[in-house]
């Protein structure tokens, strides 16, 4: 019985030495691993997107609108816009709507556009579609439009359909009559018309 008590006492004495040393070893390992670990490695981030956003200053869903002296409302919208070196706005999926005081409506839609507010001009580019409430639909690749005046001009050939039938021309100009508020489409440079007698005439 005395021998067992002495053995127990020795075991307790050794444990009093071994356990603290083991604890120190564990703590040392934790601290050493912490010192060898780079805290920045666990913080994922992207510098490419941030730099691109800062450089492009991209704006989503911008709108530009104005009213001329006769009361016609002209509004432009886009999916995105960003400034370029010429102090213009380069926009994607551009749409314009002109509400005339006469009640007529004209719309422009283009894949891209350049908005130049200082000179109140917008250029629509790529698959431009022009429609009017009087039944015209016209296609062209580029169109210059006023932002405060009812005026637009194609930068090249156009083709379209309307009350007279199918037509094409080297140039198209949109103008308005301040006295009546009506808008007019003027086609020039090799105008061709395939007359459709079945269509109602304006």
Task: Walk me through this protein's architecture.
There is one protein chain. With 202 residues, the chain is α+β, with helices and mostly antiparallel strands. It folds into 2 domains: 2-41; 60-195, lipopolysaccharide transport protein A fold (Sandwich). The protein has 2 helices and 14 strands, in the order H-H-E-E-E-E-E-E-E-E-E-E-E-E-E-E. The protein has helices at 2-36, 47-56, and strands spanning 59-60, 63-67, 73-77, 80-83, 89-99, 105-116, 121-132, 137-146, 152-154, 158-162, 165-169, 171-176, 183-188, 192-195. Strands 1, 2, 3, 4, 5, 6, 7, 8, 9, 10, 11, 12, 13 and 14 form a 14-stranded antiparallel sheet that branches. Strand 8 (137-146) and strand 9 form a beta hairpin. The protein is elongated, with a radius of gyration of 37 Å. The model is unreliable at 26-51 (pLDDT under 50). This is LPS export ABC transporter periplasmic protein LptC.
Low-confidence residue ranges: 26-51
- CATH topology of the largest domain, which one? lipopolysaccharide transport protein A fold
Quaternary organization = single chain
Number of helices: 2
Output the CATH homologous superfamily of the largest domain. Lipopolysaccharide (LPS) transport protein A like domain
* CA distance, first residue to last residue: 124 Å
Give the % helix.
10-25%
Strand content bin:
35-45%
Biggest sheet overview:
14 strands, antiparallel
Number of strands: 14
What's the level 1 CATH class of the largest domain? Mainly Beta
**How many domains, as an integer?**
2
Estimated radius of gyration: 37 Å
Structural shape:
elongated
CATH architecture of the largest domain: Sandwich
Average pLDDT score = 78
Structural class, from helix and strand content?
A: alpha+beta
Keywords: Membrane, Transmembrane, Transmembrane helix
Transmembrane segments: 12-33
Protein name: LPS export ABC transporter periplasmic protein LptC
């Amino acid at each position: 019985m005395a021998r067992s008590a002495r053995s127990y006492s020795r075991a307790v004495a050794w444990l009093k030495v071994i356990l603290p040393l083991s604890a120190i070893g564990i703590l040392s390992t934790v601290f050493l691993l912490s010192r060898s670990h780079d805290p920045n490695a666990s913080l994922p981030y992207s510098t490419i997107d941030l730099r691109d956003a800062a450089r492009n200053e991209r704006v989503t869903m911008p709108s530009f609108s104005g009213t001329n002296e006769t009361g016609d409302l002209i509004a432009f919208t886009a999916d995105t816009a960003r400034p370029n070196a010429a102090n213009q706005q380069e926009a994607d999926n551009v749409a314009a709507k002109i509400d005339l005081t006469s009640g007529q409506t004209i719309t422009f839609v283009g894949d891209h556009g350049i908005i130049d507010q200082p000179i109140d001009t917008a250029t629509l580019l790529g698959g431009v579609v022009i429609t009017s409430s009087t039944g015209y639909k016209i296609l062209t690749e580029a169109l210059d439009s006023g932002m405060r005046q009812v005026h637009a001009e194609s930068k090249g050939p156009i083709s379209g359909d309307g009350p007279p039938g199918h037509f094409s021309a080297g140039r198209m100009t949109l103008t308005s009559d301040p006295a009546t508020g009506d808008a007019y489409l003027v086609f020039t440079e090799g105008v061709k018309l395939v007359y459709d007698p079945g269509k109602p005439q304006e």
